[in-house]
Amino acid sequence: MNSDSLKQPVYVSRKVLNGKELWNWASSVGFGDLIGPEDMHVTVTFSKTPVPINSFAPSAIETTSGTLVGQPIKIHAALGLRIDCPDVQESHQKHLGMGATFDYGDGIFRPHISIKYDPTEEDLERALKVQPFQGAINLSREEMEPLILGWRPGTQSSGE
Q1: What is the rounded distance in angstroms from the CA atom of residue 14 to the CA atom of residue 32?
Q2: What residues does each domain of the chain span?
Q3: Given 3.20.20.70, 3.90.1140.10, 2.60.120.260, 2.60.120.920, which CATH number is that of 3-146?
Q4: Between β-strands 7-16 and 112-117, what pairing exists: parallel, antiparallel or unpaired?
Q5: Chain centroid to CA 156: how far?
Q6: Is 64 in contact with 14 (CB distance < 8 Å)?
Q7: For residues 114 and 117, what is the distance between their CA atoms, to the nearest angstrom?
Q8: Cα–Cα–Cα angle for 138, 140, 143, rounded to 5 degrees
Q9: How far is the C-alpha of 25 from the C-alpha of 135, rounded, in Å?
């Protein structure tokens, strides 16, 4: 088989390098049962559509940073913090141009960091009242993996 023709579904993310700082903030404002700081990340691409892996290289930008936008919100089955990071947006668009799709939730790309899964009504009410995290969010280089559906932190590999 020609290596150029190898295609598979793909997951691309960037880890939050200052996850402990973000975890400490979330804990201090009353959120419990948080995702571990080592598992905090921003999903860049979640494509069930197979893409040519050999030509689908992660961004060459080693690290980047962004800022959080607004209050924590419910995004799918998680409590998330929206992040504004031009490098993440640019990379996501590049991947779409290479044939990837964004197949998570309702299909609308909302760059965010999940801090908790399955938030309660109390969590959602608290999210409306907390003082937002004020620091920059530092992100690692992109990591690309095969897409594994149903993944959550604490399991083997990438995915939802």
Answers
A1: 24
A2: 3-146
A3: 3.90.1140.10
A4: unpaired
A5: 16
A6: yes
A7: 7
A8: 145
A9: 10
Residue 52 to residues 44, 49, 69, 86, Cα–Cα distance (Å): 17, 10, 33, 24
CB atoms within 10 A of CB 82: 17
pTM of the full structure: 0.84
Give 10-54 pLDDT, tens digit per residue.
999 999 999 999 999 999 999 999 999 999 999 899 899 999 877
- Which residues, in sequence order, are CB contacts of 15 under 8 Å at separation 6+? 38, 40, 41, 139, 140, 143
How confident is the model over 73-113, as pLDDT tens digits?
A: 998 889 999 999 999 999 999 999 989 988 877 888 889 99
